[in-house]
Design a protein that fits this description.
Blueprint lengths: L1 E5 L4 E7 L3 E8 L5 H16 L8 E5 L5 H18 L3 E4 L1 H11 L6 E8 L2 E10 L5 E3 L4 E4 L9 E4 L5 H13 L28
Length: about 200
């Protein structure tokens, strides 16, 4: 049983189980209110599922790609909840959840997942299909690109404005069941933050 949280686009939280699938899922699509809604979404899915924190095996964090401001809120929420519940954090690439949703919905063959990176740029990840465990197979790592520079080729391009925390959690469940490694525990910002600390002033006597 896993709690999954993603804020790479809107904000989504879910409780999933390997055998039962989605137990509860809630989403909020506004990309500017992650901090305001993430706590209530977590509370709601736990209440709806009837699952206590102690019953969870871990907390799945969507690692992006996504804009710095929004993405870090979901990751921080996942890490804080996991720390308080004394559960491990399970990092998963957010685009893998979009790809899984497309494949389980009947999609076949090569897939190009595209999400908005703002500033007339996009995040994109290419997939070749699914493996024996049913997991999307990444051809390369998520990348940042100009909107008009992508070569789709033989792939089906899917532009998504949402990431399902339920499918994010199922990527984690399938990965665990197959004995495969999880994603790196590093946010995929793929771009420097808009604001950076200014250099400190030298102090002289």
């Amino acid at each position: 049983m896993l709690l999954a949280i993603d804020s790479s686009l809107g904000t989504s939280a879910a409780v999933v189980d390997h055998d039962r699938g989605f137990v509860a899922e809630r989403s909020h699509h506004d990309t500017r209110s992650h901090a305001e809604v993430v706590g209530s979404l977590i509370r709601d899915v736990l209440t709806e599922s009837g699952v206590a924190p102690a019953e969870l095996s871990g907390v799945v964090a969507g690692m992006g790609p996504g804009p710095f401001t929004g993405l870090r809120i979901g990751i921080a929420a996942a890490r804080a909840f996991a720390f308080g519940a004394e559960k491990p954090v399970v990092p998963i690439v957010s685009h893998d959840a979009i790809a899984l949703e497309w494949y389980v919905g009947g999609g076949e063959g090569e897939l190009l997942v595209v999400t908005d990176a703002r500033r007339r740029e996009i995040y994109c990840t290419r997939y070749s299909g699914t493996d024996a465990a049913g997991l999307p197979v990444r051809v390369d790592e998520p990348a940042l690109a100009k909107s008009d520079s992508i070569v789709v080729g033989a792939a089906t391009r899917v532009d998504s404005d949402r990431v399902s925390a339920g499918h994010l959690g199922m990527v984690a469940e399938l990965t665990w069941a197959a004995g495969l490694p999880f994603a790196a525990d590093e946010p995929l910002y793929l771009r420097s933050p808009d604001v950076s600390p200014s250099p400190g002033k030298r102090v002289t006597s």
